[in-house]
Specification:
8 strands, 15 helices, alpha/beta, 5,6-Dimethylbenzimidazole Phosphoribosyltransferase, Chain: A, domain 1
């Protein structure tokens, strides 16, 4: 049996018993009923995910998957590909946005080389080495990768989730890779049937003419590749990237172990859609951290049935949005565990 099949077979429904236990306490807190709104909803959801009330949330890990994309040959990004390995060094040194925001909750940042077009062996154990190839192929001319490599990238993500599980209660999924908004836009256009002109954004800052060109490149990508929309592995192989596959695997792995996982932004959500296509139950373990300013992100979240926790006009990637949303994870946990009930506080309840 393949690792993917073994993993999806372990994904179980949310625990209604744990949800009910969390809700029963929240119903009795010293405040007007459900006065903290979505924080209370989040506490119930995490109880259902973990099967425990209160849910464990203390140990947090942001996994930033990195990979390059040879579709940058088509002029769809302002930044050169060498930025990817340079930014990995910045992550390792603690100087990136995701590092700063992760420090708010004490989350650790783990960086994974899934397919960076550079030799990162000298970085040793400061990163996780899971390189499938030296960047995904130019999807304007053919598939991003072979089906075999798509499976390898997903399985690498599952392995990372498994390896980190003993020291992680809540995961966050981030990305790094120049040119990766183009495959992500292609994935959402394919899955939802949206017109590329409606869901393609400026990425790292394209002007109007560059954006029009990017839209036409995505139209070409869809015509050239024609993925099987019922097959998440085929969508990844035709349109994706190694880091997107790694994110999908991370999400499947987290779900199989009842670990909540925060989706970050546009690229992270592309990985989430691949995971959902492979196993729909996996989406029950995903928490949408924020709404990206990329125009296709709202369509992605609609396809996932997800309601983002934050709307901050963010578009950084890296896992930064997931890191910020971990503050709300902590707030939801403390709502459930630190606020007294009417009985505990000897406070009179409202007349019913």
């Amino acid at each position: 049996m393949s690792l993917i099949k073994e993993t999806i077979d372990k994904i179980s429904p949310l625990s209604q018993e744990a949800r009910d236990k969390a809700k029963a306490r929240l119903d009795q807190l010293t405040m007007p009923h459900w006065a903290l709104g979505r924080l209370m909803d989040l506490a119930v959801d995490m109880a259902g995910m973990t099967g425990q009330s209160p849910p464990p949330v203390e140990r947090k890990t942001i996994v930033t998957m990195a990979g390059d994309h040879k579709v940058t040959e088509e002029g769809v990004s302002l930044y050169p590909a060498e930025v990817t390995p340079q930014m990995i060094g910045n992550f390792v040194n603690g100087g990136a946005g995701v590092n700063a925001l992760s420090s708010l909750t004490g989350a650790r940042v783990v960086v994974v080389d899934m397919g960076v077009n550079a030799d990162l062996s000298a970085m040793g154990d400061t990163i996780i080495h899971k390189k499938i190839g030296m960047g995904a192929a130019n999807i304007a001319k053919g598939p991003a990768m072979s089906r075999e490599d798509a499976v390898k990238s997903i399985e690498a993500g599952i392995e990372i989730a498994t390896d980190l599980a003993d020291s992680t209660d809540v995961f966050g999924a981030g990305d790094m890779g120049i040119g990766n908004t183009t495959p992500s836009s292609s994935i959402i256009a394919a899955i939802t049937g949206s017109d590329p002109g409606d869901i393609t954004g400026r990425g790292t800052g394209l002007d109007d003419d560059q954006l029009k060109h990017k839209v036409e490149v995505i139209r070409t990508i869809l015509k050239v590749n024609k993925p099987d929309l019922s097959d998440g592995v085929d969508i990844l192989a035709k349109l994706g990237g190694f880091e997107i596959g790694g994110i999908a695997g991370l999400m499947l792995g987290a779900a199989s172990m009842r670990k909540p996982i925060l989706i970050d932004g546009f690229i992270s959500t592309a990985g989430a859609l691949i995971a959902k296509t492979i196993e729909p139950k996996s989406q029950d373990y995903m928490i949408s951290s924020h709404l990206s300013v990329e125009p296709g992100h709202s369509q992605m979240l609609k396809a996932l049935g997800a309601n983002p926790l934050l709307d901050m006009n963010m578009r950084l990637g890296e896992g930064a949005g997931a890191a910020l949303a971990l503050c709300l994870v902590d707030a939801a946990s403390k709502t459930l565990t630190k606020i007294a009930t009417f009985e505990e506080a000897a406070v009179s309840q409202a007349d019913k």
